[in-house]
Design brief:
2 domains; flat; mainly alpha
Length: about 150
């Protein structure tokens, strides 16, 4: 039970250090300054925590993860989602304004990510059944495949 707390403490320490350096930087001078720097430090914080926890699980229970299923496919889906949401945001910002463009791009990014996860077959039938309303989700996905 100590490992997650220690992992998060280490990750949070790294986050604080990175925030101190990246947030004060003007984003016009360096792309990872300001709020982008804060976001990057959060991602790095959680990556450090997850890596520590995975190493601990691997050691304790001989955890074996399929790297394609658990890392590569979600990263591909995330990249596709990021690119499409950025395109949507930038194309809508002038006609509808910044706030509405942001809301629409976030909603569509969620939809794009779900579609990518389905297309890339990240989850098995058994894993889908484990989520709430899993049978309905699987039936919907299967219906889409037959059409």
């Amino acid at each position: 039970m100590l490992v997650p707390a220690i992992a998060l403490a280490i990750g949070s320490t790294v986050k604080i250090i990175l925030n101190c350096y990246l947030v004060p930087i003007n984003p016009n001078i360096f792309i990872l300054g300001g709020t982008a720097g804060a976001a990057l430090s959060t991602v790095i914080c959680h990556m450090i925590s997850v890596i520590i926890e995975f190493k601990s699980l691997k050691k304790e229970i001989n955890l074996k993860l399929n790297s394609v299923k658990f890392f590569i496919k979600p990263c591909i889906a995330t990249c596709i989602m990021g690119i499409i949401s950025n395109i949507i945001y930038k194309s809508l910002i002038t006609p509808v304004g910044e706030k509405i463009s942001l809301i629409i791009s976030i909603l569509l990014a969620t939809l794009v990510y779900l579609i990518c996860i389905i297309i890339l077959k990240v989850f098995t039938k058994e894993e889908i059944f484990m989520i709430p309303f899993g049978k309905k989700v699987y039936d919907f996905i299967s219906f889409r495949k037959k059409s």
